[in-house]
Amino acid sequence: MPKANEPVQQTSSGYLAERYSPSPRIESRREIEVRAVEVNAGIPQDASFIKEIANAEGLNAVQRMALHKFNNMTPEQRMLKTQAETLACNLDLVRRYYVLDKPVEKVLTDLLKHYFVKPLNSYKRVYNAVEGYCQTHVMQIGLPLYNKEPCVCAIVNKYLTTQHPEIKITFRNAIFDSISKRIPLGSMTASFAHAHRVGVPVYKKVMEKKAAAAAQAQGIKVSPDRGSTGFWEAFEEELQLLVAKMGHNRRTSEWNQWEEDIIARDCIAQDAIVLTNAPQEMMDTEGPAQPVHSGISDVQPAQPALESATEPLPSATRSLGQPAA
């Protein structure tokens, strides 16, 4: 038995024995029986230190055995186990406190309303339809981890479960209210479709919500009339015309020729820009860019006219901090 100022002896497993000295009190019969069972189970003799800690902390049998195993580990194993438990705790906190963004909640609610006005024969099919849409359009709804992280899937399904009955009650009340007011069936269905149906692709609604959040965080330059410039609308209209003309298969010769023509026109424009910015003597020697007649194979790379010029451009010298010639 070590004295008051005497250091504790190192034991075989030794991790807890360095910090705790044995108790001077006499063990009870129950404690002696427990120690005998531990010895027969192959637990080291210094388990009395662990037993004292377990009694002080009120640990159960499973926790006691875990403490014995932890005491028998090497320092490297203890560090690895502690790190793994810390990571598991952090992951548990993330899963416990993860919430959906308000834009994503708005999109999920709009999807429920959208499928409520669809010709379905059961309200349960609305939930199944929205869940199936979320599984196949994870990027469009802004949830790329829906099929990978169980936490995200559980939160989304829980939100759909809570919103489904509320929207159903509102939808049914609107139906009975229209019946009591003797609203014609055509007008009623048209009003429902206008109020609930998602008339634009879902990804546009997500981008609209995200753009509003980004505008508050970073500041997006808004057009003077606070409206759309019309670029994407014109682009989608042109793309729809091309799809109607050449089909959805983008590997056909028509689509390949369309891409080659765009690249060829871009190369001609870039060559013209290079020759316009080059010195006059380079323009006299190089001549105008030759038109492209067919395909990408006929397009020649632009010559590095600026690198071969005898005198640098005044704008280039000023940008480097040197006086102009």
From TrEMBL:
Bias class Polar residues marks the residues at 316-325
Q: Where is this region: Disordered?
A: 1-22, 283-325
What's this protein's name? Uncharacterized protein
Species in which this protein is naturally found: Sphaerobolus stellatus (strain SS14)
Please name the taxonomic classification of the source.
Answer: Eukaryota, Fungi, Dikarya, Basidiomycota, Agaricomycotina
